[in-house]
Amino acid sequence: MRVAVMTAGSRGDIAPYTGLAHGLARAGHRVTVATHASFGPLVTAAGVELCPLPVDPRAELESARGRALHESTTGPGKLLRLTRMARELVGGMAPPLVDLARRSDLLLLSSSLAPLGNAIGEGLGVPSAGVFLQPLHSTAAFSPSVLGARSFGPVGNRLAGRMTNEAVDRVFSQAVRTTVRDLLSLPPAAARAARHRARERRGWPVWHGFSPVLVPRPRDWRPGLEVCGYWWPYDPPDARLPRHVEEFLAAGPPPVFVGLGSATVPDAEATGALVVRALRKAGLRGVVQRGWAGLHADDGPDLLTVDEVPHALLFPTTARTC
């Protein structure tokens, strides 16, 4: 079977799917991951094909409008700016996604591309399913993860979930209309109808790549929404930590790992200095991952700055308690 995995975002939105894609390829399927070209090496190292998407998320975060995100002092303000950015960028991803879907037997869609991928799959008659990293469907058990950890009560949580999903649909609405009209040659009204038919009325299946121990499956979710455990990023069997990292680990007590992943900060130097002060005040050794924030620690016997390293190899060597 020709399987297309479609995802977009930062490294954390892509890396888990390399493990999923590798597993599907080992099972005998021909797998292509559609994501940003900047993550090409991450994808091809898993032994699957890459369909490059035209947006570079790191460059966008470092652009003027990306830096404006840091100037927002409230969560809603940041979310509004991020929504505007996404609305401007998503349309450029549609043509390669349509081309890939035409050559596929099944579309596996991350939450970041599900509205657009749903419309493409419905328009072309290609089956699709969701492969989400977060619980996004409305539930009384908790509020949407994008709103933080606050609970609004059973009724409020359900309402917040519906409103959040509607907001996400609006981000994609113009790109979906354009894709349905220009690339699929379907009437514009088919866009919204496709979402409801595929995702709700037919019980559109979604597998969630997180542990039910961390987030139990909500009791009020409809059938077809499953929690199946983590999809870990693919690391080749012969992967090893860089020699200088192994030497640092062997030179003293297990360190604490500090990293922000793909998150960025307004002042990397100040944030890095804060991390260093905190580690030294606690009397702990530390491995600080540079990440997209550009964190840096003054390397020495107690501190080491690293770039991308396999977390599956590093984390078992770090401190278990503080």
Your description of this structure?
It is a single chain. The protein has 322 residues and is an alpha/beta fold. It folds into two domains: 226 residues, Rossmann fold (3-Layer(aba) Sandwich); 75 residues, 3-Layer(aba) Sandwich (Rossmann fold), CATH 3.40.50. 43% of the residues lie in helices and 13% in strands. The protein has a seven-stranded parallel beta sheet with strand order 3-2-1-4-5-6-7, with helices on both faces. Helix 7 crosses helix 8. The radius of gyration is 21 Å and the shape is globular.
* CATH class (first level) name of the largest domain: Alpha Beta
Overall pLDDT, averaged? 85
Q: How far apart, in Å, are the first and last alpha carbons? A: 48 Å
Cα gyration radius (Å): 21 Å
The percent range for helix content is 40-55%
| CATH architecture identity of the largest domain | 3-Layer(aba) Sandwich
The rough form would be described as globular
**What count of helical segments does DSSP give?**
12
Oligomeric form: single chain
Give the ordered list of helices and strands.
Answer: EHEHEHHHHEHEHHEEHEHEEH
Look at the structure and name the CATH superfamily of the largest domain: Glycogen Phosphorylase B
Any descriptors?
322 residues, alpha/beta, Rossmann fold, seven-stranded parallel β-sheet, three-stranded parallel β-sheet, globular
Briefly say what this structure is.
This protein has 322 residues and is an alpha/beta fold.
